[in-house]
């Protein structure tokens, strides 16, 4: 039996992706358009996926994603690194979704929260898809903080701590919002 070598198991893990993102952010903040383009390319799926989950349809999600990319160009200089870049991008995306929803509400239009089920889907898949759409449509009707907590935790599969960082609240508050959302959803579904 061999004795473990001290220090080897306690070596710090190197976060190569995080280091690359930090380097790209620094370069982008200094005016490097190629670095900014790479940041957008690396984070576009996150932006679009988040917007789609909050909006419920492709057209609005595309509009929000484009808006976020433009906003990032103007805001990148103000990123101070106190949070992860992806958390900062989430916050900007959530704010853009809210801005779009407020503008839509003011014009009296309502986003269609239901995606079309394609005819080639199998009946069981259609039923599952319909149930899933109904659930997410109900989630989108929750009060803002409950909706954000549920979507970050369940749709984005983030921990309560990561959701708290993005939302700018305590982890226990995220847990409270998720709990309240569950109670509300039981009544809606």
From TrEMBL:
Pfam families: Sigma70_r2, Sigma70_r4_2. Residues 133-185 form the RNA polymerase sigma factor 70 region 4 type domain. CDD domains: Sigma70_r4. The keyword Glycoprotein does not apply. It comes from the Bacteria. Keywords: DNA-binding, Sigma factor, Transcription, Transcription regulation. InterPro entries: RNA_pol_sigma-70-like, RNA_pol_sigma-70_dom, RNA_pol_sigma70_r2, RNA_pol_sigma70_r4_t2, RNA_pol_sigma_r2, RNA_pol_sigma_r3/r4-like, WH-like_DNA-bd_sf. Residues 39-106 form the RNA polymerase sigma-70 region domain. Belongs to the sigma-70 factor family. ECF subfamily. This is RNA polymerase sigma factor. It comes from Devosia yakushimensis.
């Amino acid at each position: 039996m061999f004795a473990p070598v001290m220090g080897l198991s306690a070596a710090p893990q190197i976060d190569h992706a995080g280091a690359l993102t930090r380097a790209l952010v620094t370069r982008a903040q200094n005016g490097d358009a190629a670095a900014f383009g790479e940041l957008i390319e690396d984070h576009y799926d996150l932006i679009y996926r988040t917007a789609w989950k909050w909006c419920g349809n492709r057209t609005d999600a595309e509009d929000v994603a484009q808006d976020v990319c433009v906003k990032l160009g103007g805001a990148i200089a103000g990123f101070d690194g106190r949070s992860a870049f992806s958390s900062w991008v989430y916050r900007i995306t959530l704010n853009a979704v809210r801005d779009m929803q407020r503008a839509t509400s003011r014009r009296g239009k309502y986003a269609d929260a239901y995606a079309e089920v394609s005819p080639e889907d199998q009946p069981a898949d259609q039923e599952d898809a319909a149930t899933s759409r109904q659930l997410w449509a109900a989630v989108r009707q929750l009060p803002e903080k409950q909706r954000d907590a549920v979507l970050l935790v369940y749709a984005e599969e983030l921990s309560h701590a990561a959701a708290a960082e993005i939302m700018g609240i305590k982890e226990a508050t995220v847990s409270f919002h998720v709990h309240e959302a569950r109670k509300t959803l039981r009544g809606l579904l």
